[in-house]
Amino acid sequence: MMEKGYIRLNPKIARGTHEEIKSYIIISFNNFSPNLKSGKYLDYTIRFDIVCYNDAWVLNNLAIRPLMICGYIDGILNSISDKNKVF
Prior knowledge:
By secondary structure, the chain is of the alpha+beta class. It has a domain at 23-79. It has one helix spanning 65-78, and strands spanning 23-34, 42-52, 58-59, 63-64. The chain is flat, with a radius of gyration of 18 Å. The termini are far apart.
C-alpha cells in the first residue's frame, strides 16, 4: 500500500500527474442531532479542512491561499438571506 501512495510517512503530498491542483478542500459532516424547534430537521456541524502545498501558500506576496479559500467559503455561507432560506 505504501508503493501505491495510500500510506505516506512524509506529510508532504507529491503532486505527480496533477500539477495544476494547488489546494484540496475536505468537507465533513458530524454531530447529527434532531432540531429541537421543528423536529423535522437535523442540526449538524460542517467542517472544512483546507490542504495546500507549501510552495503554493503565498499568493502575490499579499495573501495566503488557505485563508483566501476560507474567506470565500465564509462569504458563500453568509450570503444566505432570509428570503432564500429553505425554512
